[in-house]
Write a structure and sequence with these properties.
The chain is α/β, with parallel strands linked by helices. Helix content is 34%, strand content 19%. It has three domains: 132 residues, Adenylosuccinate Synthetase, Chain A, domain 1 (3-Layer(aba) Sandwich), CATH 3.40.440.10; 91 residues, Adenylosuccinate Synthetase, subunit A, domain 2, CATH 1.10.300.10; 161 residues, Adenylosuccinate Synthetase, subunit A, domain 3 (Adenylosuccinate Synthetase, Chain A, domain 3), CATH 3.90.170. The chain binds guanosine-5'-diphosphate (GDP).
């Protein structure tokens, strides 16, 4: 499985795209249309929000697990857009019957709440939080529910009524837009039914038949509902253990957990970014790395590589390997820093990631600064091709995280990758 080890946007889509070549099934296990993987194939750019990046490799089966919240409107638009670009999609996509539907009213509620919140989470406004709340509150609508027309109609009616009440309490106006979106969603019912499947069963049968499966995470460890910088997190478990639950298999079926880290750190949305805060570095990395959100276009905040977070991610995910992406973004820098530990205002320093998100906002990391390589790495295809200082930088990341580096990405294209080992 592939898991993000920072605040998302680590370049998981590219790593999944590269690895998908050698697998039979790619499955998403959590999140919804708030994730946005950007994948470059030749000169073509694809932005995928819900359909696994494996779709760009002909013949691979792509599944959306039960842990995903499915925005049917967005999903069908994405599906049709792929078809219009000559990607063969029919028969290749399956959606768990146990997945919850993200309804248009979840989106409306999400935006209304975020607009009025005193302390903003910085959500993408795509309805993810409200959809997961209804799932946990046992009021959600699952794909399997649409098989029974009467029951489905009742659930939808209840959901709309509940949402309208809450919108009225928030002083929001649902307008006609919500009713229209609901009508379109309901018209897609048969299309959804034709894709419904038992993802856990499909995956286990494939594994038993000796096939290979890749589980694709969205967002990152620091956005995990339990292990991230709560409350500035997403509403699902992004970490490795969530993958088993999110597709419906046992954790013992997962053999490898590859954590994806950028060679620096970024964050979109609100909440602390301990190695950020230096305006010049922030701007420089954002421009060099093109750090603007794939889903929202929002500028991402940028900072140096955070070894405290990466080491924590290695622990909570049980990483067996690392994929370091965007190494090329650092190519022109004369010096590069790494956050080694967090120091609190009272002088206490730690290498362990603290639970208290609000004090995390006050830490000053202790940095180690190493020389840059000031050479182009985008043509490197083996570790030996890399400049010496780039190799030393990777060695340091490996040492600080206690995790072997398996892949190094040096550009957006599929071929711009180093397979270590
Ligand atoms: P994801 O959600 O984790 O898949 O990440 P995003 O898609 O939001 O961001 C990754 C962006 O970085 C995409 O535009 C990728 O094409 C790009 N990218 C991935 N790996 C590399 C790399 O090694 N170098 C450069 N320059 N860009 C990369």
């Amino acid at each position: 499985m592939i898991v993000g080890c920072q605040w998302g946007d680590e370049g998981k889509g590219k790593i999944v795209d590269v690895l998908a070549e050698d697998v039979d099934i790619v499955a998403r296990y959590q999140g919804g249309a708030n994730a946005g993987h950007t994948v470059h194939v030749g000169d073509d750019e694809f932005i995928l929000h819900q359909i696994p990046s494996g779709i760009l490799h002909g013949g691979k089966r792509c599944l959306l697990g039960n842990g995903v919240v499915l925005d049917l409107l967005q999903f069908c638009d994405e599906y049709d857009a792929l078809v219009s670009r000559d990607i063969q999609v029919d028969g290749r996509v399956g959606i768990s019957e146990r997945a919850h539907l993200l309804m248009p009213y979840h989106r409306v509620l999400d935006r209304a709440r975020e607009d009025r919140a005193a302390e903003k989470i910085g959500t993408t406004g795509r309805g993810i939080g409200p959809a997961y709340e209804e799932k946990a509150g046992r009021r959600g609508i699952r794909v399997a529910d649409i098989r029974n027309e009467n029951r489905f109609a009742q659930l939808v009616e209840d959901g709309v009524a509940r949402a309208k009440d809450r919108l009225a309490a928030l002083g929001g106006d649902d307008g006609g837009a919500l009713d229209q979106a609901m009508e379109r969603t309901l018209s897609l019912r048969d299309r959804l039914l034709s894709l419904a499947t038992d993802t856990g069963l499909e995956i286990v049968e494939a594994l038993d038949a000796g096939k290979h499966v890749l589980l694709e995470g969205a967002q990152g460890t620091a956005l995990d509902l339990d292990h991230g910088t709560y409350p500035f997190v997403t509403s699902s478990n992004t970490t490795a253990a969530g993958a088993a639950t999110g597709v419906g298999i046992g954790p013992t079926r997962i053999h490898e957990v590859v954590g994806v880290v950028k060679a620096y750190t970024t964050r979109v949305g609100n909440g602390p970014l301990p190695t950020g805060g230096d305006a010049a570095i922030d701007e420089k990395l954002r421009q060099l790395g093109g750090e603007f959100g794939a889903t929202t276009g929002r500028p991402r905040r940028c900072g140096w590589f955070d070894a405290v977070l990466a080491r924590y991610a290695a622990r909570v995910n049980g990483l067996t390997g690392l994929a370091v992406t965007k190494l090329d973004v650092l190519d022109t820098l004369p010096e590069i820093s790494i956050g080694l530990e967090y120091c609190f205002p009272d002088g206490y320093c730690t290498r362990e990631f603290p639970a208290d998100t609000f004090t995390l906002g006050s830490v000053a990391p202790r940095f180690e600064t190493v020389p840059g390589w000031e050479e182009d790495t985008t043509g490197c295809r083996t570790l030996a091709d890399l400049p010496r200082n780039a190799r030393a930088y990777l060695d340091r990341i490996q040492e600080l995280t206690g995790t072997p580096i398996r892949f190094v990405s040096v550009g957006t294209r599929r071929d711009q990758i180093i397979f270590v080992d």
